[in-house]
Amino acid sequence: MVEVVYPQKDGKPVRVDLRDPYWAAFLAWLWPGAGHFYQRRYGKGFLFMICILSIFIFGMFLGRGRVVYASFDRGDFRWQYICQLGAGLVALPAIVQAIKTKDGGDPFFVLCQRYPEGSGMGKSFTKIPPDIVDSGMGMPRNTYKDGFMAPPAGPIDQNEVDVLGMWHFEMEHMFEMGTLYCVIAGLLNLLAIYDAFTGPAIMTAEQKEKAEAKKKKKSSTSNDI
Prior knowledge:
It is built from nine helices and six strands; from the N terminus they run ββαααββααβαβααα. The chain is mostly helical and 225 residues long. The chain has one domain. The strands form three sheets. Strands 1-2 form a two-stranded antiparallel sheet. The protein has a two-stranded antiparallel ribbon with strand order 3-4. The chain has a two-stranded antiparallel ribbon with strand order 5-6.
């Protein structure tokens, strides 16, 4: 058990029981607010959980489930995912999808299917009924499948029409906005993890005195001018 004590002027110090800070930090990463629930700091736990998860889910809604994915290939280095991973468990399905599709496999939770460029079926043909694809009917059997939190299927080429390009074309600025919201959620949770590990940022009596003295000095200087 680790307890931090913040001395106060009234002689009643603020005591915060961090319990095991390493375990609390891990729980705080795994699920926003969980580390604070473990420390019995329920108010902050609910605050972090509601705010961070709401931002993450809203970002996913804006990006239609495609703005959080793990890809570190040269053609599509998704550095944003490193920040999004800070949100914890809600971002981990992207790793599962990346492993599942690494060697050309189909992702879990397919959102839609697309005909490849040059197949004669257009650049994008979404929500193809499986029976039509499987029956042949003069249509190509191999399609690119958009999966929930899965990397874009097929080759990535900035000079050609690819799946990633179609995402940007279809969602326009919503793709970037959804990505940004999920990045912000991950970065905010890093602050929650730090708070669970080190305790709240409460000013001690000495720090308050220094802050007040600095404020008075700044005020007197401005009055002289």
